[in-house]
Each structure stands twice: as structure tokens, then as C-alpha cells.
Design a protein that fits this description.
Number of helices: 7
Strand content: 25-35%
Strand order of the largest sheet: 17-16-15-18-19-23-22
Helix content: 10-25%
Number of domains: 3
Structural class: alpha+beta
Shape: globular
Distance between the termini: 53 Å
Length: about 425
Amino acid sequence: MSLVGFVAQPKKFQDHPFPYHHELELEISTLTNRGAGLGRVTLPDEPESSWVIMIPFTLPGERVRARVFRNHKNYSEADLIEVLLASPHRVEPRCSLFGLCGGCQYQHLAYPEQLTWKRQQVEELLLHLAGITFPVAPLIGSPAEFGYRSKITPHFNPPRADGSMPIGFLRQGTRFDIVDVPHCDIATPAINEQLPRTRAEVIAKKDTYKRGATLLLRDADGQVATAFDAVIAETVGKLKLQFLARDFFQNNPFILPAFTDYVGTQAAAGGARFLVDAYCGSGLFALSAAHAFERVAGVEVSESSIVFAQRNATANQITNATFLASDAAAIFKDLAFPGADTAVIIDPPRRGCDESFLRQLLAFGPRNIVYVSCDPATQMRDLQLLLAADPDLGNGAAYRLTAVQPFDLFPQTRHLECVITLARN
């Protein structure tokens, strides 16, 4: 396998320790949580050095030839030129655009090994960012390895000087260059059936676009919506849920029943009578777990999501759940539930929780906390605060970690969902 360089020479290139496009051979020792292979080399003038090189689309154990395109303070980035000795776990990528399109990082890695490495990366983040050694459960894999993604958002810019107008996703290693993607192998078959028609509609009126735009294709039980305000119907286990196409909802319906069952089971495991679902969206976790609690309260900043959460409760004949449109940090102020008898589920955006919210959560003092995250790095940062020493406990922590369970909602990519459970001491 060989790949050409993707990144043009920067205007201000830092030429230490390597000049631009310097070529070198090295062995890959591990994968980063960003999906790149990592190797080390000795610098010519520093025989004791161990300089890190990060190379996308390489695998542990491989010997590769690479070309440096960027030097940082303590590591360099390089493009893969050639795999000299391949890993036994390397497979042929299904997508012809793999390596150009930035959407996938692992199509060249056999799926069981993707699960193995993602688990290890969670364990390493737990150790290095939260300072905790704790057994991470094996990743629960997706029943569908391809054709699982129920929502895609292709982008396009105004037509180029030559009249072309790529519609797709960002090119690997760039922030603005778009790769034309007429078919996406991780999207559902229904989306790929609709995609050519949507692309044709855009191209037919390309001269009317003065700026770029983002498209949306969302699959709900085989019906694809392309309007941001379309109402989507999704079935998860016994629940039938509705929400706006533009609003957040998990994008892998094949794994959602197992995912929601686990979160609900963890929330109920401590014996709490009440449940708070912060960042509740259209009610996925709150309604999935409502049968295990006397009363459930959900909070969400998106008013449209709250409207659908309330509708979903009614449609599914769930009478013990109420929902509030508000910032998650405000829910504890007026909450009638006693903290000692309440479980809290939090599923924040990728950036994680605000420190003010975490401190209010600690002050509320729930019996247990189930933290769901699509970015384990920000999750481990927040975990530091949740497990910090509490002066009221003689400098002991208010909570202890009881379970770390990753789920692979995003096969072929570096992304995953991680569920961490905390119990009050």
C-alpha cells in the first residue's frame, strides 16, 4: 500500500528536527486515539533520543516508509509512502476513497482488531488523563460493520474555476478541501440509494450557490429524509421515538438496543428510586430506563427536542417521566428528588461537561452517575473532578469508579462511545 502526501508545505514550516518532505523508514509500535500509527526514531545528532512520528493509515508491527510534512515541539507528522512489511491484521479497505476522505481511519484494520485497539486506547486515556488504573471491559461491537450510519452530512463549496463542485467530506489532513463522495460505505443502503438523487439536485443548480452548504440525509427504518425540519421516526427496542432530523440522535440503530439497555441497567443498579437524564435529547435514555424508576426527569437545552421527548413519553404510554427545556446545569436547583435516592445519566456534547455543572452535580450528590461520552478524552478530564478528594469525607473521594464499558457505535473510524459508572461512597 502506498499513499501520496496530502498536505502542502506550510508558509512557516518548522524545519526541526526534519526538513520538509524528509523521507524515513520506521516501525509502528502503537495506535493513537486519533487513529494514527505511532513510531519512534533516533535523531541524527541525539543518539539517546526517541522522537515520535505519527503516520495515518499504518498499523502496529508494520515497517513503513514515510514523508514528514509537519514538525511539532515533541513529535512530527508524516504521510505514508509505502508499507514495507504489513501487519497480519491489515485488510483491503472496502472504500476506494479510503485514505483520501477523512471520514474513516480504520478500514485497513480487521474489525476484531479495531475493537481490541479501541479498548486499549480507553484504558490508556483513563491512566494518562485521569491517573486511574482500572479494568476496561471489552468493547461491545456493532452488529453491522458497514452500512450502519443512519445520518450523513455531506458538504460542498461554490463551483471551482473549472466548473467542478465536489460534494462529500473533508480530505484527510485538511480543514477546507472537500473530497467528492458519490457513495459512502459506512452509510445505510437507503442513504446510498438516495445520495445520487440529492447530489444531482444540487449539481443541477450549482451556479446559484454563492457560498458553501451542508446537506443532510437521515435514514429512519429505510425512509430517508433530506430536510432538516423533517420528523424522523426511529424504533429502539420496544420504544417508538420521533425527533427532528436536525436534532441530535445516535446514528447507529443496530447497536442502540444493547447500548440503551446497558445504560439503563447501570443507572438502576444502585437501587435509586428516581432518575435524572441530563442532556436528554428526545428522551432516548430517560424513556428506555423509565420502567425501573418511580419518577424520571429529563433536561435538554434544545426546545424542539424537549417537545418530542414529551410526545414520545405520551406515545409510549410512559407516565412517570417529565421533561424540561433548560441548560443541564440548572436542573438541580429546582429538582424535588433527593440526591441520595437519585441516579443521574449524563450524555454531554463532545466537549464534555462544564466545570460548573460538575460541581452542581457533586453538590446534589446522586447515588450513582452514569456518564456516556462520544469523546473519552474529555470524559476522562471530567472524571478527574468527579473522583477528586472531598474535604467532607476526610479527603476521600465522594464517588468511586465501578465500571468502564465502551461501545463501538462507529466501526471503521477512530470514534467510540464510552459508558462510565460511578457510585457514591
